[in-house]
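Now for one record:
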Amino acid sequence: MKSIWFFEDTNLFKLLCPHKYAAYKAEHVFDAYKKKDYIYFEEDSANKVYLIEKGKVKIGYYTENGEEVVKAILTRGELFGENALLGEPKRDEFAQSIENNTSICPIGVQTMHELMRNNQSFSFKVYKFIGFKLKKLERRLQLLLFKDTRTRLKEFLDELCTEYGYNCPKTGDHVIKHPYTQKDIALLIGTSRPTLNILLNELKEENYINFSRKEIRILKNVS
């Protein structure tokens, strides 16, 4: 199943970043980040969008009380900072590498607009991506504000199933092969890793799920 966060049918590196290929490699250097390095901060000038070549990037903001709210965790092939395309002059979020050896391709807003003007199909995909992302963010914030942690986890698992899941023909289970660590999931649903681990094991004991490091199964008897 296609993920709304990933342009499954578009080779973004080929389309947006031809210098990724050997003929151009010597002329272009990707930005490299280590774990906890910031790509940009809140209030920074919004003059670029970014494409992840490898690694993971956390997108979030801080409340007035200084609490961190994580909006998204993005992986290879995903675009961020896209509000700059809509005329946003400054960032209203931060972007931070959460892995060592994260590699980012920065794309100037003017360059991106030219690519979109010259490729109507690509332009449509970009705006569709932005729309999906806004809807997803709205759902996540509603969960954080109005739902208890257990409900947030179960609804997040449903979201993962939509994006990364498929039905196993042998068992009928919904199999989710996802890119997130338990720490990532805890951040995304606004809880601690120990609490997440307790909830996952409770759901496992109830035969709601089974899980391993990179796979979660929503069992047939609860679908």
Q: What stands out?
A: Confidence is low (pLDDT under 50) at residues 1-11, 18-25. Residues 60 and 66 are 12 Å apart (CA to CA). The radius of gyration is 19 Å.
